């Protein structure tokens, strides 16, 4: 099992998923209930709150409860919590026990994602969250996306995304062509920053249906795939497609190419489940709803090919005897670097932090 790195930010949801209905998600084995505070006439409020999803009384899930203004009223006996997780009402008595509170988690809404911090709250620094600004820049990019849960160790998804040569075999007829598996790639590792970059530049490749139908390019293409993985959670694939031989200008401008930013957020849910958030952002056909529908549905099929493969792989791994020795080759260089970084991050912040002393952690920032 791939160990969890606790002192890190993780994507728990898209911002659009969190509103005035409670949403339950489990991140790093911790069940969390999310909601958004009320907005007033001036537009103030609307912050995302993340509370432990277990009532302190008899453990009823708060995500199955209801909101009363900005407070959560437990759906079982009515214990009521404010945005910091402090209980402000218990039924049948005036005195509220001092220990009547649930943990609250630091939360940041950025680049269309809700990021949550699971580890020691004192170490939660919002400036360290890796950026994916294209997701929230609708003037320059049109984005489609979704989230699919996978019944597997999150390390399997990291492996999958770090080596795109699998596109040729698992996604043939969708995004894979022979050139992806045949073209060598380069790998750069910034151990300190926890970033792995894997690049594969194909200068004379088949145009797979995903790009042929969205860009309208006919014939051979120049296809670049530049991966940037910010361990543990954020994965960016900068994809550049152009007619064969068309390169960026010397000044870096690139008006004759099509650019697609493919974003994944890899969020371990439990030891054997992972949330696979995916998004496809394009800088062409902006606002074209038919193209958006095509890219959404087509990419979801691709994602489901991975989901089904990883579900099967996990089942297979679960039945094998311990101590099996994997065989790695060149294509695994990026994945192995990612595993090394994840192991280090887990070792640095692997233990659950001690419960924070009062005052409680701010619920939203
Ligand atoms: S379980 Fe929540 S009030 Fe009893
Ligand atoms: Fe894939």
TrEMBL record:
PROSITE patterns: RIESKE. It comes from the Bacteria. One of its GO terms (molecular function) is oxidoreductase activity, acting on paired donors, with incorporation or reduction of molecular oxygen. Keywords: 2Fe-2S, Dioxygenase, Iron, Iron-sulfur, Metal-binding, Oxidoreductase. It holds the Pfam family VanA_C. Residues 9-116 form the Rieske domain. PANTHER family: 3-KETOSTEROID-9-ALPHA-MONOOXYGENASE, OXYGENASE COMPONENT, IRON-SULFUR DOMAIN CONTAINING PROTEIN. This is Aromatic ring-hydroxylating dioxygenase subunit alpha. It comes from Actinacidiphila oryziradicis. The lineage of its organism: Bacteria, Bacillati, Actinomycetota, Actinomycetes, Kitasatosporales.
